[in-house]
Amino acid sequence: MIQNNPIGRLIAHIILIVGILIVAFPIYYAFIASTQSLQDIMRPPLSLLPGGHFWENYTTALFGGIGRIGGVSVGRLLINSTIMALAIAVGKIIISILSAYAIVFFRFPGRMVFFWLIFITLMLPVEVRILPTYKVMVDLGLIDTYTGLTVPLMASATATLLFRQFFMTIPGELVEAARVDGAGPWRFFKDILLPLSKTNIAALFVILFIYGWTQYLWPLLMTNRNDMTTIVIGLRKMISFADADTEWHLVMVTCILAILPPILVVVLMQRWFVRGLVETEK
Amino acid sequence: MASVELTNVRKVYAGGVEAVKGVDIDIKDGALCVLVGPSGCGKSTLLRMIAGLESITDGTVKIDDKVVNDLGPAERDIAMVFQNYALYPHMKVYDNMAYGLRNRGMPKDQIDKRVREAAATLELAHLLERRPRELSGGQRQRVAMGRAIVRNPKVFLFDEPLSNLDAKLRGQMRVEIKNLQRQLGVTSVYVTHDQLEAMTLADILVVMNAGAVEQIGAPLDIYEKPASTFVASFIGAPPMNLIPVTAGESGLILRDGTRIGAEGLAVSDKDAVIGFRPEDLEVATGTESHIGGLLLDLKVLGVEPVGAESYVYGIIGGERVVVRVAGRSVSQPDDHLRVIIPGEKLHLFGGNGKRI
Amino acid sequence: MASSTRVTFPNKVLPYLLLAPQLAITIVFFYWPASQAIRQSVLREDPFGLSTQFVGLGNFKRILSDPNYLNSLQVTVIFSIATAVIAMGFALLFAVMADKVIRGKGVYRTLMIWPYAVAPAIAGMLWLFLFNPSMGTFAYMIRSAGYNWDPLLNSNQAMLLVVAAAAWKQISYNFLFFVAGLQSIPKSLIEAAAIDGAGETKRFWTIIFPLLAPTTFFLLVVNTVYAFFDTFGIIHAVTGGGPGKATETLVYKVYNDGFVNLILGDSAAQSVILMVIVIGLTAIQFRYVERKVHYG
């Protein structure tokens, strides 16, 4: 070990602490604001310590109903976001693992064509086909439905490519051993492939949950009704910086409620998430 | 128990490569047949065709007198031990062994009985609750064997099962596999590229080269009467010395032009190869008769003492040869020795490499 | 001999069934709309939507000579470069420091990854809340120091704010990759450099930084893609492309022209141009992947 220089390490710690401050401060500040009264928020500078309105603000936001977003409760928006994030994460994992399984473990006419069809979707993010996609959704009657919010986002190349890459590292002998042991494609998938993919699935789950939760353009387009939209869009609708009527203390509570679930998922599942992230993008 | 019969078995890959070119092998019930050859000779492909893991382009594979060409691996009643063991990494040793039985719907208590019996035979009883990554190479090897044994199949197939073990363990496992196979009496096909392994294990040895069978027979028969220069150089370590010669009016002409008398030696081909095992040379003291044999001049290049014996490396007629001498050799580099190959130890091959 | 071809199952129908869900979604929601975008990009609809007319590359020509579009292109480039450089610079600094400390590594990492979970739009709102002229604490401090701060009216300040929010959110991601990249550099190389008499700073610039180049390059592409596409929420929530058109990025403009101004042909042509940009960036990214760089 050559870096046993205590002063250098001290400087490193200081820089890291400053870094943490930069990174965490906006979130901390939102939390502080969510515990203050509206009057205190409107009179900067804000105290750096939590105020005394924690319970009051949080219960009002959760159970009081907020006029700005059309009388829809924050709870409803949180449920919508949760449904969206979970459905996208689970749906995408299922769809991707199945197609990767087909592409890696079977040989059939058109295999490479299908692979490329999936691969090319990498180059077609929602943002480049906004309007026609919207039109398809309208024609199919999917606006303001959970199906519309989730299903179109379930197919994408990244997850399929990740599973494909992982499946290709599984030794052929293992497949052969399973075949000799009398396992057909379904048994092999259920008894061997799925258990072996556990960590990959966990990692992808975290990444996709965040992906689903933080969607913005999609729910903005796909929902008109306030009770079908997500917490992120709801929050956007609550805010008007020009408007003096904005109830900032409740907005900040909503803000904290909107970022807490994904942060918990990331922090609690950190081990898989970090591994998965670095490997996915390899 | 069952016999295995291959008739004119061929494998042609989609790209047109012919990996196996019409192989006929008959393996009697309970015999251990070893397929040996250099990598790429088609021996693994052949084994995988018997297993049902590789489709059969042409010919028939019979197990127990029944054609199995169109049966899947699970329906052929075979068990296989893989080169990298192919243990299911997420399953305990017990489950690894039980998996195939469960898939066949065997009752639990019977599975348990079989697994425990096999574990006892292989001294794995204390490892049943471990996972493969917690085992040593030798232990994994045993689990792979165990997985094959519990199935009580008609045929065992081994695909280079010892190639990932170190030399000492390999020797040990070789003996164990042989004993186990005898004890269970299950017909077995064993693929290896290691000729020593092949010699020591085989009841019937099949030497393969470039997709075709070069020779089939008992190991010692093959050692003593190799059917071709390929077999001669592949079986035995150090390999047989091979010296190309041209048959002249009065004897043989070596590559470097040396003429040697070859009385009583019938060489009909113009181009031929003479071969002799390293242990079959005698140093001439001047009085022996070499009628029917050959008297040659050997220039010593170097000597390797390995303990009980020594290898003398040298040149005869421009070709490098090895001689095995008991004990220590007194030869020095640049020494010239007169050596005799007795007639009965001499192997003769025609210009096409086939034994004459 | 391990055969080089993949071991597979012999079924003929099953693979199609397995692929069906993904293909169905892909075709209905990706290929169909994308082909519509391409079709519309060469058509022009009259203002009442009564008739359409084929105009060839007309829409593209008009867009590319439209000062608003060129402005938007310029905004996007400035925004992307600034975001990528700031996000990567900070992340690299923190990663190098985190590589140096012995205690507390895990804690630092845990605290460092939070912003990854924050939606870009919310990141924008958090920063706007801090710097909002009427009540943001930082805005108050800047004003107290005598500067005229109003990101809602001043274009440069607006750009600064969205760049800060966008970069802030991306630090976590870059940090994780730089940490992984640093860990994959063999310690023996750094020790050899130390024996060769290189000091700490010199070691960083001559050994560590060059060896991190693959990671850096990869992140540059990823951050560019992020700044181009994923930051729509930040712009939409914070500035709405304003003041003026100072923060109107390409993606924001596609949205705005299509949904707010309802100019279908232009919006479609812009979509097609964006598609070309994504294809270019993806191609670069995959060329890089082919070089098989491994992270520890």
Q: Shape of chain C, please? A: globular
- Estimate the helix proportion of chain A, in percent: 55-70%
Task: Quote the beta fraction of chain A.
Answer: under 5%
Q: So, the CATH homologous superfamily of chain C?
A: MetI-like
Radius of gyration of chain C: 24 Å
So what's the overall shape of chain A?
globular
- Count the beta strands of chain C: 2
Helix and strand element order of chain A: HHHHHHHHHHHHHHH
* Termini gap of chain A: 29 Å
Order of helices and strands of chain C: HEEHHHHHHHHHHHH
Number of domains of chain C: 1
Radius of gyration of chain A: 24 Å
Q: What are its keywords?
A:
heterotrimer, B: alpha+beta, Rossmann fold, OB fold (Dihydrolipoamide Acetyltransferase, E2P), 2 domains, six-stranded mixed β-sheet, 20 strands, elongated, C: mainly alpha, MetI-like fold, two-stranded antiparallel sheet, 71% helix
Architecture overview:
Chain A is mainly alpha-helical and 282 residues long. Chain A is built from 15 helices and no strands. Chain A has a single domain, classed as MetI-like fold. In chain A, helix 1 packs across helix 14, helix 4 packs across helix 8 (157-167) and helix 13 (231-238) runs antiparallel to helix 14 (248-268). The longest helix of chain A has 32 residues, at 74-105. Chain A is globular. By secondary structure, chain B is α+β, with helices and mostly antiparallel strands. Chain B has two domains: 4-234, P-loop containing nucleotide triphosphate hydrolases (Rossmann fold, 3-Layer(aba) Sandwich); 241-350, Nucleic acid-binding proteins (OB fold (Dihydrolipoamide Acetyltransferase, E2P)). Chain B has eight helices and 20 strands. Chain B has helices at 43-51, 93-103, 108-121, 137-150, 167-184, 195-201, 219-224, 229-234, and strands spanning 4-12, 18-27, 32-36, 58-63, 66-67, 78-81, 155-159, 187-192, 204-209, 212-217, 241-248, 251-254, 259-260, 271-276, 282-283, 294-305, 309-316, 319-326, 336-341, 347-350. The radius of gyration of chain B is 24 Å and the shape is elongated. Chain C has a single domain, classed as MetI-like fold (Orthogonal Bundle). Helices cover 71% and strands 2% of the residues of chain C. Chain C has 13 helices and two strands. Chain C has a two-stranded antiparallel sheet. In chain C, a hairpin with a 6-residue loop joins strand 1 (43-45) and strand 2 (52-54). In chain C, helix 5 runs parallel beside helix 11 (232-238), helix 10 (213-230) packs antiparallel against helix 13 and helix 12 packs antiparallel against helix 13 (264-290). The longest helix of chain C is centred in the N-terminal third of the chain and has 34 residues, at 67-100.
